[in-house]
Design brief:
By secondary structure, this protein is of the alpha+beta class. Helices cover 15% and strands 36% of the residues. The chain contains three helices and nine strands. A hairpin with a 5-residue loop joins strand 6 (114-121) and strand 7. The radius of gyration is 17 Å and the shape is globular. The protein starts with a helix and ends with a strand.
């Protein structure tokens, strides 16, 4: 039994990052252009954003150590602002499109890392599509609080091409 478990783990079986049927990341991300504030246009609902009623943003800033400071903010139903700070590290240094993000950092040590794959990106970095290998999570981000219907339709087609279901995405109110 232990040998079977070892073979299973050593071949990468069960590891989403080595499956053939995973979303494809963009060929390259210029992290200098990617930094700054992004508005959440839509997301696949998830447990860690349940308190967010709208006006959700993510801000990325490069650190001197090569990692990225991440600050996520949203407005809760009662009008108060929820904010969480995390860190992202680059997993694929060639494309810089695969990252891991951690928001659980007791004593400054990141214990749990989640996938953050940039699977779509506007030519002028006006929008980004972020996903995960298992397609359980997904976000549509933009530099402005709104996207045109045409741009959103294009993004939905990109999501379909990546194996996502656009109807799984819930629009985020941005006031």
């Amino acid at each position: 039994m232990i040998i079977i478990l070892f073979l299973f783990l050593s071949t990468g079986a069960g590891d989403d990052s080595v499956k053939k049927d995973v979303p494809q990341t963009v060929p390259y991300v210029d992290l200098q252009k990617y930094t700054g504030v992004w508005y959440e246009i839509a997301k696949i609902p998830n447990r860690f954003q349940k308190k967010c009623a709208g006006h959700t943003t993510a801000e990325y800033n490069l650190r001197k150590d090569g990692k990225i400071k991440v600050v996520n903010r949203c407005v809760k139903e009662n009008g108060s602002v929820e904010e969480i700070e995390g860190i992202a590290k680059i997993v694929d240094p060639v494309s810089q499109a695969r990252l891991k993000v951690s928001f659980f950092r007791p004593l400054g040590i990141s214990l749990f890392w989640g996938d953050y794959w940039i699977i779509g990106l506007g030519q002028d970095y006006e929008y980004a599509i972020v996903g995960t290998p298992n397609r359980k999570y997904g976000w549509i981000l933009a530099r402005k609080p709104q996207l045109s219907k045409e741009k959103l339709d294009d993004i939905y087609q990109q999501l379909r091409n990546q194996g996502y279901h656009p109807e799984d995405f819930q629009m985020t109110p941005q006031n």
